[in-house]
Amino acid sequence: MSGNILEVAGVTKVFGGLTAVNDVTMNIPDRSIVSVIGPNGAGKTTFFNMITGIYEPTKGTIRLDGRELVGLRPDQVTEAGIARTFQNIRLFSTMTSEENIMVGRHSRLKSGFLDAVLRTKKFHDGEQEARDAARIMLDFVGLGKWRNELATNLPYGDQRKLEIARALATTPKLILLDEPAAGMNPRETEDLKALIRRVRDELGVTVCLIEHDMRLVMTLSEHITVLDYGSLIAEGKPHQVRNDPRVMEAYLGRGAAAGDYGKEERPHA
Ligand SMILES: Nc1ncnc2c1ncn2[C@@H]1O[C@H](COP(=O)(O)OP(=O)(O)OP(=O)(O)O)[C@@H](O)[C@H]1O
């Protein structure tokens, strides 16, 4: 065993004439918290989309615990042990918090279509298991009191936590969070930071985030990978990346302020 939960080697994605991700190699150690950063359009989301099977890489390999993921569908990647949240909230607004998580749990249910139609014992057992798992996850993220509330009625920060709970309900080995702090106020961001640490420490789930909030990235990450125009331009511990001239140039070149680069691009609450 290499000690890496994920090994991405030489991954490239070309859209027409544009190379969105260019020959990126990145290893994520098991049970670590790591970040992928970079200016807008650097290729971060495309990178996540390749890991999760939404896009097939033009080149390169992606291994989870030694198993090749390239060629798998998104649901098969979830089944293999990778969960994710998206940049924009993607909850079902007409469902309760609990139901939103049960949907996330779906890929783990063993009963099939016929079991559902015939309402077999297997179906009921599966349904109960999904409900129990949803409650455990709601309690874990501190949303137990919102169990029967429509997702759309939850405060913004709690909706983002609900998305994390839904992803965790698939019992992943690795969770990818795409801009989890976007739009959060400082108190919500602090809460989020504590939750991400608990996901790793208490559930043993490896965390990889894309994030523009540099304060969060620098205080939470054990390792940071920096992309610019699709290429990896720097990586290392937060203090190494923060002081890397290539990183400063990548951000400053686009008019960001030193020390807080990237942040002014967000409409902050
Ligand atoms: N499906 C697609 N077809 C064509 N071009 C795409 C597609 N998806 C992304 N791109 C392009 O690839 C480049 C990288 O985009 P991507 O969304 O991965 O960047 P990002 O680093 O996540 O940016 P942001 O921080 O703004 O979310 C951009 O130039 C984008 O326009």
UniProtKB/TrEMBL annotation:
PROSITE patterns referenced in this protein's UniProt entry, alphabetically: ABC_TRANSPORTER_2
Pfam families: ABC_tran, BCA_ABC_TP_C
Cell membrane keyword on record: no
One Gene Ontology MF term: ATP binding
Domain ABC transporter: 6-254
InterPro entries with a match to the protein in the record: AAA+_ATPase, ABC_AA/LPS_Transport, ABC_transporter-like_ATP-bd, BCA_ABC_TP_C, P-loop_NTPase
Alphabetic keyword roster: ATP-binding, Nucleotide-binding, Transport
Highest taxon of the lineage: Bacteria
Name of the protein in its database record: ABC transporter ATP-binding protein
Organism: Deinococcus radiotolerans
